[in-house]
Amino acid sequence: MAEAHQAVAFQFTVTPDGIDLQLCHEALRQIYLSGLHSWKKRFIRFKNGVMTGVYPGSPAGFMVVVVSYMSYNKYKQLDPSLGLIANQRIVGGVLVGTGLWVTIIMIMRNVLKSLLSWHGWMHARHGSVSWSTRLWMVMKVFSGRKPMLYSFQNSLPRLPVPSVKDTCRRYLESVRALMDDEQYERMKGLTKDFEKNLGPKLQWYLKLKSWWASNYVSDWWEEYIYLRGRGPIMVNSNYYAMDFLYVFPTSIQAARAGNAIHAIMLYRRKLDRAQIKPLMLLHTIPMCSAQYERMFNTSRVPGVDTDILQHMNESKHIAVFHKGRFFKVWMFYDGRLLLPREIEQQMERILADKSEPLPGEENLAALTAGDRTPWARARETYFSRGKNKQSLDAIEKAAFFVTLDDTEQRFEPDNPVKSLDSYAKSLLHGKCYDRWFDKSFNLIVFKNGTMGLNAEHSWADAPIIGHLWEHVLSMDPVKLGYTEDGHCCGEPHPNLPGPQRLQWDIPAECQDTIQSSLTLARTLADDVDCHIFPFDDFGKGLIKKCRTSPDAFIQIALQLAHYRDKGKFCLTYEASMTRLFREGRTETVRSCTMETCAFVPATHLTPPRLKLLKMAAEKHQNMYRLAMTGQGIDRHLFCLYVVSKYLGEDSPFLKEVLSEPWRLSTSQTPLQQVELFDLVRHPEYVSSGGGFGPVADDGYGVSYIIVGENLINFHISSKHSSPETDSHRFGANIKQAMLDILDLFQLEKKAM
């Protein structure tokens, strides 16, 4: 049984002689340390706010400007206040010097914003730097020194609104290969009508929003694509991240959880202090960091019509699930963060707890896996008061959620297909009641020490959680390490209070709702067909020898594989980021292009077909650049559609465009902190990457991660219920397509 602990600050007894007051010094000490920790955190946030607010200036620059200005005035015998202030040399010098310093900062910030708005560097050929790009790189002078995580936020440009004409032209180009002549002419007519009539009216409102809001897309994207969805977020929205592929640091579940949780909390501390370096393209161009703000202490709270994101500024505990019971585990003691061995000690106590789940408790989390409206109504009816509210608050206000899973998952060299497929399905949906899908992310630690993440999608995109996961994987086996017998380094704490078992009183009516959600979730989970395979025949090292973008190479291979799999092309979604702009999230690259469709079925000899391939790769790269620089199609059309709904205008063009299914949805998982992993000396420390569920009922979801020079991991998902799809068949087609495209370059002959 987990130890029940209550810290009592004082006790008193009424006696004939008066009140006998007995203070508990340990409890008072913990209160003092907790308050000290809170005030230190407030001070750090205030200091970071000041540093970020004046960037690219600095307090030191303020002193230099003011002292220099006052020295100049003294030398010239000038009165900066023009006689308005009595002690003019000091007070007037400080005031005018401050104004001069603020002016310099504003000039530098606006110059930096202008420089960041230029994206000509993207079109430079690899390995060459034009004179315009070299001149543009003067931005380093305006970028300040030692930027913090949010230093560049005020200097990032706003996402531009493309012209209606350009968007319509690119849309027609993107669907030409997918339509016959009659369908295309019909769509062309709808497009031209929209471009001339309704489009300009909707565009005016969108322009107005782009001038007023930080980003004209992100808030509507979050609300309408994610939070207003009433279907299950499990499988349909949440995604997962896997552990190392070949390395198993320890087989002790509690120890692996101890190191991982400690590493995550260290990351949160760096995040709170804004000590994480902003991600910089080419070590020069900053990307938006706004999505990091809600990584921790965040839950998606269900509503009848729309959900909301609840974020707490501070949370000192985590919520843990094990065999149907929920626990609250404090992460701080004696005014400090628990050490890995101490966290392992807490996990051991939970694993040793033999108590049974309370009625309705075991399957409670299934509410987060089913439809949103029943969950919202149940939450309002049964969890808005008493012990249920307190326990639910403990989960929703936790830093993050941990599942100590009672199954074993791992890559098995003797059974690679079945083991990885089972591992992926467990991370994606588990048993449908053993993950709290509403939390910003779940850390899942399996019985044999393997681990992974399940992340909610509305608050941020995959690269953000990927940044955290890279930190955890780099810390775990190397920097934190384990003892020879597999435990965390250090010693258990003799006086550490144990985890707190959460209490519930769930009535029969609520249990019926839970069971309904569980039934729906299990049907959805059982329908998912996952296939994960490491492609190690070659990697980006060999692809670069073909003088082709690795991403373009893989995307074209996916088109070839899909054509062989289904005998046709389909509308294809590839996620691209728009974080070069303030509060940017994603844009769509429509990677099924006319050039790709010309290459795939070609039966020419190698030289002509190779030319078609290079044209397709170049087209893909150009589209990716357009998406990254705010000139994509789909976010603009989405926002125009939202405006049309607000105005009560009906657009057959927009309605048809937004109803087109993405039967092939793809995404690359980027390795962002390459310096954390020395894959040359330690090639075994490769990540498996992560994946997501299929977007269309009759389509495929494909995620891939390019690891090192010689490995690409693919994650494929589809639905068993569709007669058109088979994830394992598609995986075989991808592998063959990759090999066939490489053969076109005839690298063996060139080497000879």
Automatic annotation (TrEMBL):
Tell me what reaction this enzyme catalyses: (R)-carnitine + hexadecanoyl-CoA = O-hexadecanoyl-(R)-carnitine + CoA
The residue ranges crossing the membrane are 50-70, 90-112
Instruction: Report how it sits in the membrane.
Output: Multi-pass membrane protein
Domain Choline/carnitine acyltransferase: start-end pairs: 159-736
Drop me one GO molecular function for this one. Answer: carnitine O-palmitoyltransferase activity
Q: Which UniProt keywords apply?
A: Acyltransferase, Fatty acid metabolism, Lipid metabolism, Membrane, Mitochondrion, Transferase, Transmembrane, Transmembrane helix, Transport
Q: Does the keyword Ribosomal protein apply?
A: no
- The name on file for this protein is carnitine O-palmitoyltransferase
Report the gene name.
CPT1A
